[in-house]
Amino acid sequence: MTTSPPSPAVRVLLVDDHAVVRQGLRLFLGLDPQIEVVGEAANGEEALAEADALIPDVIVMDLMMPVMDGITATRALRKRLPDTEIIALTSTLEEHKVNGAIEAGAISYMLKDASSDTLADAIHAAARGEVRLHPEAAKRLVRDFRGGEMRETLTPKETIVLQLIAHGYSNRDIAADQGVSEATVKTHVSRLLGKLGLDSRTQAALYALKQGIASLDGVEL
């Protein structure tokens, strides 16, 4: 009987202007054998350089930093490294920070008081393309979300895919649930984002919640 090789560890870049915070995150995340912290940065400018050199799977990004803040860095990194996901990890729920981080392209929004298990789960989820939001951040985002202008009506299949995105499913999970290929799911996701005038899965999840296509009670936050 053969066994499948273990999945490679998620490669993570930590970005925070406080060395003690980075040290604590490295210590806690080091307890998870499927997470590898490959580098650190003290501000957004350093994050750009480190990310270019390391090409991490996930970046854990503080928002309030000198030289270059996390929102500006997130926006730049999404253009430079579209396959790298970014988790906003901060101490504030100020509306302009929450909205700014998601609009810049962060897939998740977490607070620094989150448990190590919660953060590790968010990192693994981000690597799979899944959304994780602090519950209060999710409520504010849904309330304030404007979204794009609907350009075409979604098909029934696209509506189901949108619901599953809002419920935290990855493309692989959606493919298994719907009995189709992952490539087919990617096509559905691309089309529905275009029809809704949206840029990311996180925005799609917020749209679904705002329109009542999915509910906060059922979303993994």
Automatic annotation (TrEMBL):
Keywords: DNA-binding, Phosphoprotein
4-aspartylphosphate found at: 62
Domain Response regulatory: 11-127
Tree of life domain: Bacteria
Pfam entry (one): Response_reg
Domain HTH luxR-type as annotated: residue spans: 147-212
Cited InterPro entries: CheY-like_superfamily, NreC/VraR/RcsB-like_REC, Sig_transdc_resp-reg_C-effctor, Sig_transdc_resp-reg_receiver, Tscrpt_reg_LuxR_C, WalR-like
GO molecular function: DNA binding
Protein name as it appears in the record: DNA-binding NarL/FixJ family response regulator
Organism, scientific name: Deinococcus metalli
Gene Ontology BP term (one): phosphorelay signal transduction system
